[in-house]
Specification:
Layout lengths: L3 E6 L5 H10 L3 E7 L3 H10 L5 E2 L15 E4 L28 H11 L3 E7 L9 H12 L2 E9 L7 E2 L1 E9 L36 H16 L8 E2 L5 E2 L12 E3 L21 E2 L3 H7 L12 H10 L3 H18 L2
Parallel strand pairs: 1-2, 1-4, 2-3, 4-5, 7-10, 9-11
Antiparallel strand pairs: 5-8, 6-8, 11-12
Amino acid sequence: MERLKSIDLFAGIGGIRLGFETAFGNGIETVFVCEWDEWAQKTYSANFETSDIKGDITKINEDDVPEFDICLAGFPCQAFSLAGRHKGFHDDYKGMSRGTLFFDVARICQKRKPKVIFCENVKGLTIHDGGRTFDIITGTLKELGYTVHERVLNSKDFGVPQNRERIYIVAFRSDIDSSKFEFPTPTDSSKRIRDIIEEKPVSAKYYLSDVYVETLRRHRARHEAKGNGFGYEIRGWDDTAGAIVCGGMGKERNLIIDKRQTDLTPVTHIKGAINKEGIRKMTPREWARLQGFPDSYRLELADVHLYKQFGNSVTVPVIEAIAKKIKEILDYVGK
């Protein structure tokens, strides 16, 4: 078969691309990349041979996008998240309506009519506004001439110890018989946090101060007194991590106890001393492993950026498993 061309919209740090490249091997080539966050662009460029990353998708003329066969689009999920403000298509951020950025995907695909459109988003997209938001998205794809398949999959079923449910949308152009397309079934639900832990003791900077630990405990106690379940969580090494997210309680919901580091001299400015219980946050590399990124993936930015990027990213093995199923259909119709 001829080499397929793909475009990577809302590319983030390239997790969707990585999954598809692993599944398709040399049978796929990325011909266009768009990501507006400058720090994500840096991590992307450090890991892929991409000389030109476009920024604001709303300013891209669809005529300037080269011909492509597969559209990869992990469009921003904040507007649809269960943890967000549920504004959906009306959500506004820095002058851009994040909910409506999906329509830029539609605009570009309407012009080029690729064989496949692949989208990933938070599970909350399916129920937002009583399901109307999701109906608009799938309805738009159908109007463009696509057969739409969708499924919620959990990362913990695909070889990583992270409980992360996401909605995946696979739309085949209607002239392609996708009646035999099936989403992948679980491949490996056995992984636990101990499988992604750093082999050697990590820097003292990842250990919480005793003052902060006490603050977290008081914070949770206040919420529990009100009947809320919000608060920090310490995960056992034989547990599955919760979904990693950027901001808020992102790192504090996946704390672990690791007593291998014996030098608890602070290496950053903290209040109090490092806690004696061994409570620490996971490292960016551990978060990368929770998302299924290989250890060869380069992490060159400061931790603050990496946490945000992996919290926003996709789980690569899930993408790979879906991409293999897509490839089966394209291989079959291409014979």
